[in-house]
Design goal:
Elements (H helix, E strand, L loop, with lengths): L3 E8 L5 E7 L5 H14 L12
Antiparallel strand pairs: 1-2
Length: about 55
């Protein structure tokens, strides 16, 4: 099928979360996973929270 992944991309100036969708060629799941992993490595997000949350 058509592989796709969604990764967190940061927050707007008002604190709303923004996502990025990475879409690959048909049956090219590996490239989508590699691109997603590279993006998350370059822009770590796991510890980030919107400004209004503890």
């Amino acid at each position: 099928g058509q592989p796709a992944a969604t990764v967190p991309a940061g927050f707007t100036a008002s604190g709303l979360p923004v996502g990025l969708q990475i879409v690959g060629r048909r049956f090219d799941d590996l490239t989508v996973l590699q691109a997603s992993a590279a993006f998350e490595t370059a822009r770590p997000w796991a510890a980030r929270r919107p400004p209004n949350l503890p």
